[in-house]
Design brief:
With about 425 residues, this protein is of the alpha+beta class. It has helices at about 45-50, 85-95, 100-105, 140-150, 155-160, 195-210, 245-250, 260-270, 275-290, 345, 355-370, 375-380, 385-395, 400-410; strands at about 10-15, 25-30, 35-40, 70, 115-120, 135, 175-180, 180-185, 215-220, 225-230, 235, 240, 245, 305, 310-315. The protein has 14 helices and 15 strands.
Length: about 425
């Protein structure tokens, strides 16, 4: 942790695709418009040898600014910490100014994706650092998280176990841990009675049973309840992948925040031979989210990973967990009835996913059949009866259960 931070109005942005030992200068990021926006200007070298970080940050001379306040330009905004990370920064670093630029800087070297931020103009010198926690540190990490939640003072030993920038979105407590030579994001409870972390693990496993491409998860037993570990898909050894959120992809083209729009975006940024398969995957994720009452499927909970050939692939699914609210509205647009959580709505724009009505119906029936056995599946993974009853109130409630049973019986057209 920096001992004294002096506010900076400009910092350098780095590419860490080959690891932090081989950083490449992307350019300068700086405060603008009353310190409420962060702009980007590419360096001459990056203009010659680099790539556009997102579609609204094309390679070219000049300054790029976000349209909205309290944001950074294009994909640079994805290098910010999530709401939990911001809370950690306010608690542990206590900088004298908290603009978007400070949040970008204090997210540190372990942030999501392959971008890095440095105060120095000519060297990559990130905030924070220190060794990654191991599984043996899980209890201490839980203690550190609890101290942040309670606004208690942490000693230096516990401070080093908390990393503020490992994920795209969310307010749930989390940090990083190393297991089997890989980095995992570990989420903890905020003290509620419901074992959200074990339920998330079970939901992700059920999604995999449906044939969806999901991030690997593990349930980690704690003295009370569980933590859930999610294997990072933006790291492969020392190499880091450039990852952009659905938020950045859709904003770059002024498109509504919706599943059909994401599917169409794959036509621009995806590898041609993989587009159809990934559009179908996106449709099935949407269906799964609806039937499992995951209504927190916002634009930061979907992402695209840049490969070495410059094309983007739909990332593995992550942050998939029932909301246990029965809101009946997704965060993203589903179809002609906007965000309504219904299969009929999901079928209104199947052409945007490259699907025929019959193919879409077959996908729904496949997902519905797997979801119909969710309770036994969760029970086998150790989810408590009390939590199963709460989940059943929504997943087996009149709206969702009726929908899945109806579609299981529906014949092909």
């Amino acid at each position: 942790m920096d001992e004294v931070y002096v506010p900076q109005d400009a910092m350098s942005l780095w590419w860490l695709g080959q690891g932090r030992q081989s950083p490449q200068l992307i350019g300068q990021i700086f405060l603008a418009e009353g310190n409420r926006k962060v702009g980007l200007e590419y360096s001459p070298m990056w203009l010659q040898q680099g790539f556009a970080l997102s579609e609204d940050l094309p390679l070219g001379r000049g300054v790029s600014l976000p349209k909205e306040r309290d944001m950074a330009a294009g994909a640079v905004d994805d290098a910010r910490p999530d709401r939990w990370g911001e809370r950690v920064i306010r608690k542990l670093y206590r900088p004298s100014r908290l603009s978007v630029l400070e949040y970008l800087y204090f997210a540190g070297d372990d942030r999501f994706g392959a971008l890095g931020v440095s105060k120095a103009a000519d060297a990559y010198q990130p905030s924070g650092g220190g060794a990654m926690a191991k599984l043996a540190n899980l209890g201490e990490m839980e203690q550190a998280i609890a101290a942040v939640l309670a606004d208690e003072k942490l000693d230096e030993r516990l401070v080093r176990l908390i990393k503020p920038g490992p994920s795209f979105g969310g307010a749930r407590p989390k940090s990083l841990i190393e297991m089997d030579g890989c980095q995992w994001v570990v989420k903890f409870s905020e003290g509620e009675d419901f074992d959200t972390e074990l339920v998330e693990h079970a939901t992700m496993c059920l999604a995999a049973e449906c044939g969806l491409n999901v991030a690997e998860t593990r349930a980690l037993q704690l003295a009370r309840g569980h933590a859930v570990a999610i294997k990072r898909f933006d790291r492969e050894g020392e190499q880091r992948s450039h990852v952009i959120s659905a938020n950045s992809v859709l904003r770059a083209n002024g498109m509504p925040m919706g599943y059909p729009e994401l599917a169409q975006s794959l036509r621009r940024i995806g590898r041609p031979q993989a587009i159809r398969g990934q559009q179908k995957e996106l449709f099935e994720r949407m269906v799964f989210n609806i039937l499992m009452d995951n209504t927190d499927d916002h634009e930061k909970n979907h992402a695209f990973v840049r490969s070495s050939d410059g094309f983007y692939d739909l990332s593995p699914a992550y942050d998939v967990v029932p909301s246990v609210q029965g809101l009946g509205q997704q965060q993203l647009r589903v179809g002609k009835a906007e965000a309504e959580s219904s299969m009929e709505n999901a079928l209104t724009e199947v052409q945007a996913f490259g699907l025929s009505k019959d193919a879409a119906l077959a996908s729904i029936k496949k997902i519905a059949a797997a979801v119909d056995g969710w309770k036994a599946f969760f029970q086998a993974l150790g989810v408590a009866d009390r939590d199963l009853q709460r989940l059943a109130q929504y997943i087996d409630g009149p709206t969702l259960k009726t929908q899945r049973r109806e579609f299981l019986k529906r014949p092909q057209s």
